[in-house]
Write a structure and sequence with these properties.
heterodimer, A: about 550 residues, mainly alpha, Cytochrome C Oxidase, Chain A, globular, B: about 240 residues, Four Helix Bundle (Hemerythrin (Met), subunit A), about 70% helix, elongated, binds protoporphyrin IX containing FE, binds copper (II) ion
């Protein structure tokens, strides 16, 4: 008699991950959670490509004469770094991954309003990405991520048009994501989920989507004009032929300043969730935080001229843009104050996501405050186009958004995968990221203040020590990013099973949906009866804002 | 239990929406997609989505209108000079053609509301025809410009030497704006053909005709763009 042993298998309950297998079930899916994972893996790939360019730049800058690359190659490195990181990593990062995954769960819907358009926007993103990689592979582009004319239209002999097509296509992916989110938030909320019960994460994505929908088409048409001008040389941006190069800058920044808020608002939404959850307290001033997101979205369209202080824009325009730029910092500051006040007398636990939230608050504050320096015309004349600007925007985009992204990925990892990650490693990595980040970018404030210009392959010898310090910090930062990739990949397969709500957090995605959620998100469609962040009265907690 | 998202038929027992089946069956079950509760919710979502899309189109064209405004203010004289080469007669005819096509499109949507399938097809065909007339006339105009060497680029020529560069920029804007508009017309024509096929297959009914309504909105929008383009490019400065 033949006895066969069979391993007893614990049958997982059906969820969005195990319901079907095979590549078609992924590439043709309309499930917002699976599309979010498609984005997760593709933007991680682009993050590594963009990171590789950064490694090249930092290596080159260890020597005043340029260690490895010719100046031409260096120009391509910083251009491709900027384009990949901004258009193919940071803009889709939190919205397309976490927003896609969470918005339907948070508002109590089965999916986004337009699931097939959601899949379409992933394909557009991938097509744009492939064209961008093709442009890199065939020799790259050297205009800077800002594509300033007439250099980009007349003088550059690199692959400007191919790159422009890549950005154009990716732009439509971003527009469609924003459109989908707006309609979803308006029309798909569960019974009882009123606007003022929405999690702040949803508010911030709503504001982001407004910017995506209103701003991105303008950069799209700007890119079309740029491409046509490069083909026909009618001179529309060429002063030699009667064109106006400042017009290009206006059109470009009309999108690209609001776009920097596409790159921070979703992060602010994540931080609001993390801070309340790990302070075990309702958020301080819900209404203020919610409306500050919308205020940022509106004001962000009025300040683009602060990128043109030294470009030849009229002095009076400069003064007004300066004033308006100060105003846009107010809602950002409101958020920082409210997070701090939320933590005040909360019972704070120091889990990994909260460490990232601390990092975000500190680093974003530095980034935002130096933004005010730059918005002051007289100071900007001194530090524009120096490393001071580079440090400013890396503090907001990397210290802010990437920290928030990592914090969010850790926070919702149990929900997404149904597994826990190793807490010790995760805290260690968060610390490494924080230290590495500051070592990399703080010296750049000093370098810029001392007058080192950005976008040059070489520099004066007296700047070398700070540059070497920055490059050393960058290698620490790189390690800090690699560690989570390794343990998260491990935890996805081997980590201990996560309960539905490991953090004791509030919100439909934690309380009403198992980890990982089923395909239609809820076993029973939820009805909402309370405000967001109803953590009960921690000592000294104030009541939720009506 | 197997969940089967995005299924056309929603009769299987395991469907998580089974409880709401009553409301679903009563209305047009075939077109209600799995993640909506009611057809009203689905319709409102589609329309809101379409309006937002049109908003993005406004911004898209808005960038070019902005550029147009800048150059018109910079070079008013060159502008007056180029506008004499715009064919107001053909442009005017095209304006009339487009307004008529808006009317036939509105009639198509109205027929859809009443569930008159043959009338939908008829009016859509008319709209398609008028759209093609517009594109044909546009082609004639572009051909004129080609013959006169008014296409920006290496072969550009301009009678008044003072305005050579400036005129080239203005023709560039003319081609960019009307060209993009024509592109939208071509896309619209494609969409109308799709609608005609759907109507021929009896996909629409008085309860469900969302695509007709949405593409109707799109078509009106493209017409309105032209209503702005025509005076700005053809009429202004023509008195000089
Ligand atoms: C607190 C509000 C902020 C203010 C007042 C502000 C102000 C400024 C100013 C005046 C400049 C131009 C500096 C120059 O070129 O001379 C600048 C550059 C920049 N900022 Fe900000 N900023 C703010 C927040 C942010 C945020 C949140 C982000 C991104 C997440 C960001 C990203 C950038 C980028 C990418 C640049 C450089 C663009 C380039 O020339 O390549 N800023 N900022
Ligand atoms: Cu800005």
């Amino acid at each position: 008699m033949n006895i066969t042993f069979e391993q007893p298998k614990i049958k997982e309950s059906p969820n969005y991950l195990n319901i079907r297998y095979g590549w078609r079930s992924w590439l043709l899916t309309t499930d917002h959670k699976r599309i979010a994972l498609l984005y997760l893996f593709s933007i991680t790939a682009f993050f590594m490509i963009g990171g590789a360019f950064a490694v090249g730049m930092r290596l080159n800058l260890t020597s005043p004469n340029g260690l490895l690359f010719s100046p031409e190659t260096y120009n391509k490195l910083f251009t491709m770094h900027g384009i990949i990181m901004i258009f193919f990593f940071l803009i889709p990062s939190i919205p397309a991954v976490l927003g896609n995954f969470l918005i339907p769960l948070m508002i109590g819907a089965r999916d986004l309003a337009f699931p097939r358009i959601n899949l379409l926007s992933w394909y557009l993103y991938i097509i744009g990405g492939i064209v961008a990689v093709a442009a890199v592979a065939s020799g790259g582009v050297d205009t800077g991520w800002t594509f300033y004319a007439p250099f980009s239209t007349t003088y550059s002999n690199t692959h400007v048009i191919m790159t422009a097509v890549a950005v154009f296509v990716a732009g439509f992916s971003s527009i469609l994501t924003g459109l989908n989110f707006i309609v979803t938030i308006h029309k798909m909320r569960a019974p009882g989920m009123t606007w003022f019960r929405l999690p702040l994460f949803v508010w911030s994505h709503y504001a982001t989507s407004i910017i995506q929908v209103l701003g991105t088409p303008v950069v799209a048409i700007t890119i079309v004009l740029l491409g046509l001008e490069r083909l026909f040389h009618a001179g529309i941006f060429d002063p030699k032929l009667g064109g106006d190069p400042i017009l290009f800058q206006h059109l470009f920044w009309f999108y690209s300043h609001p776009a920097v808020y596409i790159m921070i608002l979703p992060g602010m939404g994540v931080i609001s969730e993390l801070v309340t959850c790990f302070s075990h307290k309702t958020v301080f001033g819900y209404g203020f935080v919610a409306f500050s997101s919308v205020a940022i979205a509106v004001l962000s369209f009025l300040v683009w001229g602060h990128h043109l202080f030294v470009s030849g824009q009229s002095m009076y325009a400069g003064l007004i843009f300066s004033l308006l730029s100060f105003m846009v910092a107010v809602p950002s500051a409101i958020k920082v104050f409210n997070w701090t006040a939320t933590m005040y007398r909360g019972s704070i636990s120091y889990d990994t996501p909260m460490l990232y939230a601390f990092g975000f608050i500190g680093l974003f504050t530095i980034g935002g405050l130096t933004g005010l320096f730059l918005a002051t015309v007289a100071i900007d004349v001194h530090v524009t186009d120096t490393y001071f600007v580079v440090a400013h925007f890396h503090y907001t985009m990397v210290g802010g958004m990437v920290m928030a992204y990592l914090g969010g990925i850790h926070f919702w990892f149990p929900k997404i995968t149904g597994r826990m990650y190793p807490e010790g490693w995760a805290r260690f990595a968060a610390l490494v990221v924080f230290v590495g980040f500051n070592l990399t970018f703080f010296p750049q404030f000093i370098l810029g203040y001392l007058g080192m210009p950005r976008r040059y392959a070489t520099y004066a010898p007296e700047f070398q020590s700070l540059n070497v310090l920055s490059s050393a910090g960058a290698s620490i930062l790189g390690v800090g990013y690699l560690i989570p990739m390794i343990y998260l990949a491990w935890a996805w397969n081997r980590g201990p099973r996560a309960p539905a709500n490991p953090w004791g957090a509030k919100g439909l995605e934690w309380e009403k949906s198992p980890s990982p959620p089923p395909t239609f998100n809820f076993d029973e469609m939820p009805v909402v009866t309370e405000n967001a962040y109803n953590y009960g009265a921690a000592p000294g907690a104030t009541e939720a804002h009506g | 239990m197997a969940l089967r998202p995005a299924q056309r038929k929603r009769t299987d027992k395991e469907d998580p929406l089974a409880e709401s089946e009553v409301t679903l069956e009563a209305l047009h079950p075939r077109e209600l997609r799995h993640h909506f509760d009611t057809p009203e919710q689905q319709l409102e979502s589609s329309l809101l989505g379409m309006w937002i899309f049109l908003l993005t189109e406004v911004m898209f064209f808005g960038g070019m209108f902005g550029g147009y405004t800048v150059y018109r203010n910079l070079y008013p004289d060159a502008f007056a000079s180029t506008s004499q080469y715009m064919n107001v007669t053909l442009g005017g005819i095209n304006t009339a053609v487009l307004i008529c096509s808006s009317l036939t499109m509105a009639m198509a949507v109205h027929s859809a509301q009443l569930g008159k399938n043959r009338a939908i097809i008829l009016f859509l065909l008319l709209t398609l025809f008028l759209g093609c007339v517009f594109l044909g006339i546009k082609y004639v105009e572009y051909h004129e410009k080609w013959v006169d060497h008014h296409i920006p680029g290496p072969h550009f020529q301009y009678a008044d030497a003072r305005y050579f560069h400036q005129a080239q920029i203005l023709f560039f804007l003319y081609f960019a704006m009307t060209g993009l508009h024509a592109l939208h017309m071509i896309v619209g024509a494609g969409l109308i053909i799709a609608l005609i096929i759907m109507a021929a297959r009896h996909r629409f009914s008085a309860e469900w005709y969302t695509p007709v309504e949405m593409i109707g909105l799109y078509w009106h929008f493209v017409d309105i763009i032209w209503i702005f383009l025509f005076p700005l490019l053809y009429l202004i400065g023509h008195t000089k």
